C-alpha cells in the first residue's frame, strides 16, 4: 500500500474510532492534517507556477520530464484554457501527461479537471483525459467518476449538487466523489453549488423551507471564503426566489437575512454589490429575478426595522399601554403593504440602554443615531407611506409628517441624524413656517401629538396627503 493511500485510509477509519477521554480529538485531527498536507502538496504557489510556465512554454511537451508535466498541468489550464494561441500546446501537454500512464500524473490530470473545470472549447480534452486516467486504475476515482458523472461537464455538477442537497453533509459527499477537502473552492465544487442553488430556487412551496435550510447549512460547512464570486449570485437567488409571494418561517427568514447581509450587504445601505449580483442574473436571462428579488429582501428588512423597533422599545417603555396602541396603529399600514421604507434611529442613552438587545437590532440590518438635538434617551422610527415621510417618536414626542419637497425632509438609512429637524422643535417649526411664506402656501411639514383620539386624526392626515386608507 502506498503512503498516500495509507494516509487516506487512516483518515477514513479515524473518524469512526472511539475517542479517548484523555485526548478525544487528537488522532482524528492528526489524520485530517496529514490528508490536508498531502492535498496541498499537489499544488504549487502562483509564483512557482508562473516561473514554471515561462520555462516550459516553448518546449515540446513530449520532451518534458514527468515532474514538469505533472506540475505544469493545472497552472497551464488555468492560464491558457481560453487562449487560442496556446490551444495546441495545451492539448499536447495533456496528451503527453496521459501517455506516461503514471498513477501520480493521472492523479494530477484528474485534480486539474476538478480544480479548473474549464468551460471553453478545450474542456472536452481535459475531461476525456481525466476519464481515461480514472478508469485505468483500481482506485476511488473510477467509482466516483461513474457515480457522479464527474467527467461530463453538464451532468457532473448536477449530480454532485443533488447529492449535497440530499445528504446535507458536504464533507461526506466530497469523500464519496474523491475530492479532497482543500478543493472545496474548485471549479467543479462551485459549479455543483450553483446547480444545487438552481434546484433550491425552483423548489415547490412544500419543499422550499427544507431546501433553503439545507443550502444554508451547506454554505456554512463550506465557509464564506470557499464560495467564489462566480457561485454567489446563484446562492443568493436560491435563498430569495422561493419567497417572492410568501414569507418563509420567521426563524428561516432571520437566518436568510443575516446571511445575505453578511455576504452581499444590506441593499438599502450598500446597493452596489447587489447591482453586480443582478447583472449576473440578467446575463443568464433571469431578468424578472433581477427586477424583483432584491425587493423581497428589502421588504423583509423594512418589516424587520418596524418589528424590532416596537418590540425592543416595548421592553423598556414606562407606558406599555401607550406603546402598544402606537404599534397597533402603524402595523395596519405595514401589513397593508403601505410602509415602503422604515429605519429606526436611537439616541445615545437609548443605544446604551439597549446594548443587551444588540443582536436583535442587527437583525433589522442596522439603525441610525442622533448626533444631538434630541433627548438622549429618546428614539424614533422613520417611515415612508406614499409620498409622506413620518417620524414616530418614543415617549411623549409628537409624530412629524413631511410632504414631498418639505424643508429638512429626512432621508433614509443615514448613520447620523440631527434631532432638531426630526422632531417638533422650535428650529423645525421656524423652518417650516419660513418655507410656507416663501411658497405662499400651507406648510409642508406638521407635527401631531398623541392626545385622545389621535388615531383618527393621524388616519385623516395620511388619507388627505396620500389617498391611502389603512
Report a brief summary of the structure.
This protein is α/β, with parallel strands linked by helices. The protein is built from 21 helices and seven strands.
Structural description of this entry:
This protein is of the alpha/beta class. The protein has 21 helices and 7 strands. It has helices at about 5-15, 25-40, 45-55, 65-80, 85-100, 105-115, 125-135, 140-150, 155-165, 170-175, 185-200, 210-220, 230-240, 250-265, 270-285, 285-315, 320-335, 350-355, 360-365, 425-440, 455-465; strands at about 340-345, 370, 380-385, 390-395, 400, 415-420, 445-450. Strands 6-2-1-3-4-5-7 form a 7-stranded mixed β-sheet. Helix 9 packs across helix 11. The longest helix is centred in the middle third of the chain and has 30 residues, at about 285-315. The termini are far apart. About 35% of the residues are buried. Residues about 35-40 have low confidence and may be disordered.
Amino acid at each position: 500500500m502506498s503512503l498516500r493511500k495509507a494516509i487516506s485510509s487512516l483518515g477514513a477509519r479515524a473518524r469512526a474510532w472511539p475517542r479517548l477521554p484523555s485526548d478525544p480529538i487528537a488522532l482524528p485531527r492528526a489524520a485530517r492534517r496529514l490528508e490536508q498536507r498531502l492535498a496541498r502538496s499537489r499544488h504549487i504557489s502562483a509564483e512557482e507556477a508562473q516561473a514554471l510556465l515561462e520555462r516550459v512554454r516553448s518546449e515540446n511537451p513530449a520532451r518534458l520530464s514527468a515532474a514538469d508535466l505533472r506540475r505544469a498541468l493545472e497552472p497551464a489550464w488555468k492560464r491558457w484554457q481560453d487562449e487560442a494561441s496556446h490551444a495546441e500546446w495545451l492539448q499536447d501537454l495533456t496528451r503527453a501527461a496521459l501517455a506516461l500512464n503514471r498513477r501520480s500524473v493521472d492523479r494530477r490530470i484528474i485534480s486539474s479537471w476538478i480544480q479548473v473545470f474549464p468551460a471553453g472549447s478545450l474542456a472536452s480534452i481535459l475531461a476525456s483525459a481525466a476519464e481515461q486516467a480514472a478508469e485505468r486504475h483500481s482506485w476511488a476515482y473510477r467509482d466516483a467518476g461513474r457515480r457522479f458523472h464527474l467527467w461530463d461537464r453538464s451532468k457532473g455538477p448536477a449530480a454532485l449538487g443533488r447529492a449535497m442537497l440530499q445528504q446535507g453533509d458536504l464533507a461526506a459527499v466530497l469523500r464519496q466523489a474523491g475530492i479532497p477537502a482543500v478543493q472545496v473552492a474548485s471549479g467543479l465544487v462551485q459549479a455543483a453549488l450553483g446547480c444545487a442553488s438552481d434546484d433550491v430556487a425552483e423548489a415547490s412551496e412544500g419543499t422550499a423551507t427544507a431546501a433553503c435550510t439545507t443550502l444554508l447549512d451547506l454554505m456554512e460547512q463550506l465557509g464564506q471564503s470557499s464560495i467564489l464570486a462566480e457561485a454567489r449570485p446563484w446562492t443568493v437567488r436560491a435563498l430569495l426566489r422561493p419567497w417572492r409571494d410568501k414569507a418563509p418561517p420567521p426563524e428561516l427568514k432571520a437566518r436568510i437575512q443575516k446571511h445575505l447581509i453578511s455576504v452581499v450587504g444590506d441593499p438599502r445601505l450598500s446597493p452596489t454589490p447587489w447591482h453586480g449580483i443582478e447583472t449576473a442574473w440578467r446575463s443568464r436571462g433571469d431578468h424578472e429575478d433581477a427586477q424583483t428579488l432584491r425587493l423581497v429582501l428589502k421588504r423583509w428588512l423594512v418589516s424587520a426595522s418596524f418589528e424590532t423597533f416596537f418590540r425592543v422599545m416595548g421592553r423598556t417603555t414606562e407606558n406599555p399601554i401607550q406603546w402598544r396602541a402606537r404599534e397597533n396603529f402603524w402595523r395596519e399600514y405595514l401589513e397593508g403593504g403601505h410602509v415602503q421604507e422604515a429605519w429606526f434611529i436611537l439616541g445615545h442613552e437609548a443605544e446604551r440602554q439597549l446594548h443587551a438587545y444588540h443582536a436583535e437590532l442587527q437583525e433589522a440590518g442596522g439603525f441610525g443615531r442622533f448626533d444631538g438635538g434630541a433627548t438622549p434617551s429618546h428614539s424614533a422610527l422613520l417611515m415612508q407611506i406614499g409620498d409622506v415621510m413620518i417620524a414616530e417618536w418614543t415617549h411623549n414626542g409628537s409624530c412629524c409628517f413631511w410632504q414631498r419637497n418639505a424643508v429638512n425632509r429626512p432621508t433614509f438609512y443615514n448613520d447620523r441624524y440631527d434631532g432638531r429637524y426630526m422632531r417638533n422643535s422650535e428650529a423645525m417649526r421656524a423652518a417650516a413656517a419660513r418655507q410656507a411664506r416663501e411658497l405662499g402656501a400651507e406648510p409642508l411639514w406638521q407635527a401631531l401629538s398623541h392626545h385622545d383620539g389621535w388615531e383618527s386624526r393621524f388616519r385623516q392626515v395620511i388619507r388627505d396627503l396620500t389617498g391611502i386608507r389603512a
